[in-house]
Write a structure and sequence with these properties.
Layout: E1 3-9, E2 19-21, H1 23-32, H2 38-41, E3 56-59, E4 74-83, E5 89-99, H3 100-140, H4 143-149
Antiparallel strand pairs: 1-2, 1-5, 3-4, 4-5
């Protein structure tokens, strides 16, 4: 089971923390017709009521039993005192346990989804920045330079005033002079 109730003795004294009812007890009673005396005498099988806080992580003491392996995991636990209608305390405590991994799974899934979406958004922004940089740098560059690089525009030497100049002919030097 992923969640269940446990009845615990909450009265002050030697029996404080003794588990009175647990799903493991039902299983053992069906199979063996009786329970170990260790469940009431051995401190390993007691609930540490004074150290527990509601909503805190909890290790089920029954997980230490040879047949309690399915309870040997992390649980989220909350406890409440059992009271009569007259608000008198019975000394009993109900402990509600829920499997931590099952309870926390939606939070972990949400975290994973947020990470994926964040990385996708980051990749989109970086791609957009690179594309924008490419187009802006092309727009700001000399358009004639691009055409010249592609071999399309031939320029003749010009002066600063953009007037054409005449190239001087190249004379061959005669050898021997």
């Amino acid at each position: 089971p992923n969640q269940f109730n446990v009845l615990v003795d909450g009265r002050p004294g030697d029996s404080r923390g003794v588990i009175l009812h647990h799903p493991l007890f039902d299983k053992l009673l069906r199979e063996q017709k009786q329970l170990d005396v260790d469940f009431s005498n051995d401190p390993r099988y007691r609930v540490p009521l004074d150290q527990m806080q509601d909503g805190s992580l909890y290790r089920d003491p029954m997980g230490q039993h040879a047949q309690g392996g399915r309870y040997n995991r992390r649980w989220v636990a909350a406890k409440r005192a059992v009271r009569f209608e007259s608000n008198d305390d019975t000394g009993l405590i109900v402990l509600r346990q829920e499997d931590y991994d099952v309870a926390a799974a939606p939070v972990h899934q949400l975290g994973d989804a947020l990470l994926r979406h964040g990385l996708t958004a980051l990749a989109s922004v970086v791609s957009l920045f690179i594309a924008l940089w490419y187009f802006v740098s092309r727009a700001l560059s000399d358009p004639n330079e691009t055409i010249r690089r592609q071999g399309g525009l031939r320029t003749s030497p010009t002066t600063i005033s953009s007037m054409e100049t005449i190239e001087l002919p190249h004379y061959r030097r005669e050898s021997g002079r």
